[in-house]
Design goal:
The chain is an alpha/beta fold and 405 residues long. It contains 18 helices and 10 strands. It is globular, with a radius of gyration of 22 Å.
Amino acid sequence: MEPHRLKPVLLEARNSFHAPRAFGRYYRGVGRFSARGEYMNAPQSLHNLGQSIWLDNITRDLLDNGTLKRYIDEWSVCGLTSNPTIFDQAIKNSAAYDVSIAEKLKDGKSGEDLFFGLALEDLTRAADLFRPIHEKTNGVDGYVSLEVSPLLAYDTAGTIAAAKDLWARANRANLFIKIPGTKEGLPAIEEAIFAGVPINVTLLFSREQYVAAAEAFLRGIERRIAAGLNPRVESVASLFISRWDVAVADQVPENLRGKLGIAVAQRAYKAGVELYASDRWRRICNFGSRPQRLLWASTGTKDPKAPPLLYVEALASPYTVNTMPENTLKALAGHSELTKLMDANGGDCEAVLAEFAKAGVDVDALAARLQDEGAKSFVKSWSELLGVIASKSAAVATAGTKGGR
């Protein structure tokens, strides 16, 4: 196809996602030829660099209309994440859940219990779509994630009980339970890993918070080794990126905009590389375990002036995950090949962070604030989600009563 005709076709394919053949055909044409003579698009090139692309979204419509399956087939998506905000939007903005809500109401379900029933229906279906990837990668990839109630962010015992219960109810090896990396969450992470529950540590914002989560994972694995248990329990540590730049947007000079989240990620990545090379990590690997992977979260740009792939391009790195909002994934699919990897030594992160310090940004204090705000924002979304469940339940019950007359 002539170059001047490619862009309109791409736009048409992007805006007509219900036409999968045209979509797949033309998006595969953006990139370069692989060694086997096949077109390689940007998601495929990123995957080939060693980074896993996950989708930061789940809705029943994505499952029902085949969109998630096409993302897997065409864009190398090999996992997904969810959170209370995502489910709040999914259930509030779709009638696709109404039948399931009605069935669960008949079974006496309500509130939080009803929600987890809906979430598990979606996530187990998604987990089954990702199962071939999970098997092909020997359990490295192909995961979905379900978060414990955000009300438990500062409740260690409650988090441990919820993690074990939800994972047992899901009955899927490729489902992560998300536990926040708060002070109270760290013992729950260790205990869940010891119990054999795969964990996605969420709400991490700094190198120090990441290292604390990694050490909680390590303690859980070491306890399994000491107890004679299989040490293969997978985990990812989710470091949130874009919220850093949102937090300081109004207090730093223009030349520093969009640079703080990346610098924090570089610092954490360097710490991760050093951890992987340590005697302690190599010991558990010798027993059959695998290191916990870093996951880049909140990688959609929120600054309208910033390039849509600012964080995706900067955070390309092997043995990591980038979980992307749907719009970021679509932007990546229309992009050319990615080839540059993040510097394992942290690049210029310390120099950049020194500039932010000069501008009055206390990174340690801000990390603590962002984690606290993140926990509170999920509690707010959780409350809104349960409100949506209540109103949907009432509407479905009313419709059922009228229909039965």
